Every structure is written in structure tokens, then in C-alpha cells.
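Take a look at this chain, C-alpha cells included, and explain the fold to me:
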Amino acid sequence: MADNHITISLCMIVRNEENTVARCLDSVQDIVDEIVIVDTGSTDHTKEIIRRYTDKIFDFTWIDDFAAARNDAFSHATMEYILWLDADDVLLEPDRLKFLALKKNLDPMIDAVNMPYLLAFDQFGNVTFSLRRNRLVKRSRNFQWIGSVHEYLEVSGHVFNSDVEVAHKEEAHNSDRNLNIYEKRLALGKFFTPRDLYYFANELFDHRQYERAVEFYKKFLDTGKGWVEDQISTCGKLADCFQNLGDHENEQAYLFRSFEFDTPRAEFCCRLGFYNLQGGKLKQATFWYKLATQIEKPLDSWGHMFHACWTWLPHLQLCVCYDRLGQYALAYEHNEIARTFRPEDPQIIHNKNYLEGVLGLGRVEKGEINKEIGDE
């Protein structure tokens, strides 16, 4: 185990994680000084695997409360700082090295360290979706987890924004578990915080219960008390709901409503671009996609970030727009920018070959480029 400037307890809650837990622990066992595992009812070989790494394994009777289980795990820690991970998380090698450097050099006055959480990847291994989570906290501060589902760690004091990334490599998911917990609470008349309303609506959305999702997303927005990033996300989710319900007027209305909470985000500009492109409004589509390319990408955003909208996607769609407008040089220019982000993308390579032929010959078969361009 490591012996550097600060000491770290890894605290995890697990249940039937035999397929992923070894990968997770392998990636951090030389970084942390103690491994604490709370098992909430495994019936597979999870415990046997964990015993290869630690003897600090504790049982916790599951009570439909993730925060309670995580707080129990934290209560068994003995080191200066606590790191939490899920069994399907992993630190890739560059981030393992960064973490070791962080451990050696972290100012002991720091109370909490947040890190980017990489949640989805494309076929080329590029990050497509991420957010930030408070990941490493000082044990003496006794920070608590809050929320029975989609729990969060409430911190205060001196917080450090780290560039150490944690990758989420999910293999299996109990898709009904969280929804069932919320439904039980609703049936019992339990109070739902604004955060509860938001995450319950997300579960309803994931289960394609769009009309109920709309109901609870609207209840969340009506409280006026939610986190701004969740309010912005809700506008996008409501637009998705109305799109699935065939209500395109409300779909567009909620895309615009996202601008009430902050300056335009690239994700919403791309969606408005696509909305107009689908409607054949090429000039409007071009406007929104161009705006997406001009917005500065936030470095330490805590909200959900779809990286494609901040990098290659608006340029690829501008290629489509300019091709349809007959402005082939601009189409080629934006395709080349997209290619800097995804040099092996067959759609982009197709566009490159097509447009080089067009620009070289000075003629074009209309619409050819669009055969390979997919929806966002």
C-alpha cells in the first residue's frame, strides 16, 4: 500500500459485483491505504473476490437507502481521507499516476476533492458524457451522504477541483430497482425533495413513462429550488418527452426554456439546429450549429456534458447544412474540423472524399453527402 503525504480509506458498497469488483480494486489498491467494503446482500462470489484485497468486509441489511449504506461504509474508515467508488468504476493508468501525485502533494487543508466522472464512451474510446462528483473527502469532517436513491455527498469548506478522472464501465444494471424504491416512497406518502422529484422523473423517463415523467419534471421546475444544472437538464428531458409524445411545439418550447437558467449550452444549440434541419430550415439550423461551435467549453462544469456537442458534432452537421445550401467549401472546412476530433469516423472520411471530388470537379450529385449523416 502507498505511504505518502496523506492516507486514504477506500469505502465501497457492493452487491453481486463478481464481474467488476476485481477490476476496480486492481486499479486503486496501490493508491489507497485501507479498503473498506460494505456488502448489502451478495449471493455470488463477490465476497470471496474481495477477501483477496482486504479483510475489512462488513454486512449491511438493505433498507432501500443508498445513503444509509454509504454512510455505514464511511463509518468504518480509519485513514485521513475517504475515497468512494462503485464496483464498476475504474481508474485508467494515466489517472492512476495523477492520483498518486495528488496523494503526495494534496494540501492537508483541503476538505474535499471533486473529479470528473466519465459515464459514456464512443466506439473510438472518446468520452461522450461526463459530470463531476465529490470523490475524496477528509474523514474528520464527517461529511454525510443524503438521499435514498441517486444519493449525493454533501461537502463544505476548502474544495479542490482535480483533473483525476474516474471511468464508469458499467456491465449490468438493475433497471427497475431505483424506480421501485421511488414508487414505494410515493405510495407511502413520503415527502419528495426537489432533487427527489427530478430523479424520480428521470427513472420514469428511462422506463418510457413519458406522460408521468412530464408531470414530475414540471413539479420539479415549479419548486424553483432545484440545482441549476438539474433545471437545465430537465428542459432537455422535457423536450425528449414531448418529442416522444409527438408534441413538437412543447419540444421546441422547452429547448428555449433552458436559456432562462444560464447562457446557451452547446447541447441545446445542437438540438435546435437539428430541430430546424429536420424541418428543412437550413439557415436557422446553420445559425444554431454555428453558435454551438462558438460557445466556450466550461473547464470545471458540474453539469451533464455531452462532449460531442462541444467538439465534432456541430461541425459535422454544419457540413450537412452547407452541402445542402451548395456552399461546398464551407462544408469541407467544417468536415475537416470534425475530422480533427474523429479521424477514423467513416462518415467523416466519406464526406472528405465526396467533397474533395465535388470541389475538384466543380459539380455535385445533390444529396449524396446526406446518405451517411445520421441523427444526433
Remarks:
- The first helix runs from residue 21 to 28.
- The CA atoms of residues 81 and 138 lie 4 Å apart.
